Amino acid sequence: MPKALRLLLARLLLALPQPSITAVYGQMTQMIKVYPIVLTPDTGGYVVFVPDLDINTQGNSLAEALFMARDAIGAWGVCQQDSGRAIPEPSTAEPPHEPEEMISWIDIDFVKYRPVPLSTLPIDSRRLHFASFET
What we know:
- It is a single chain.
- The chain is an alpha+beta fold.
- The chain is 37% helix and 22% strand.
- The protein folds into two domains: 1-18 and 117-135, no CATH class; 28-116, Double Stranded RNA Binding Domain, CATH 3.30.160.
- The protein has a four-stranded antiparallel sheet.
- A hairpin with a 4-residue loop joins β2 (45-50) and β3 (55-59).
- The chain is globular, with a radius of gyration of 18 Å.
């Protein structure tokens, strides 16, 4: 994509009005849920399955797999909200798993996970956000 077109797209994105989290979800300040995950050792790290949401992710280490699980759950939940669908309540029971698999629990605050609207950022921060468009 030509540089001029990338810059134009970046400027157009910055000009779009973006609602604040309070405008969209009222005065909600927290929405914390804790989901069980199944970690399966793999040759390159760990595969993560979130049974309540039927999503997968992976990480090269245990720490990365846990980080990626939180990110996947957060992104999935925000997409659900943006589509007008409810985020399912997490299970309270340990999910079924094989002996070589591990179970963990991932907490996520869906309100804090939601990205900050670009319109609330100072102009200098917006330029930094789109610096990858400039080559």
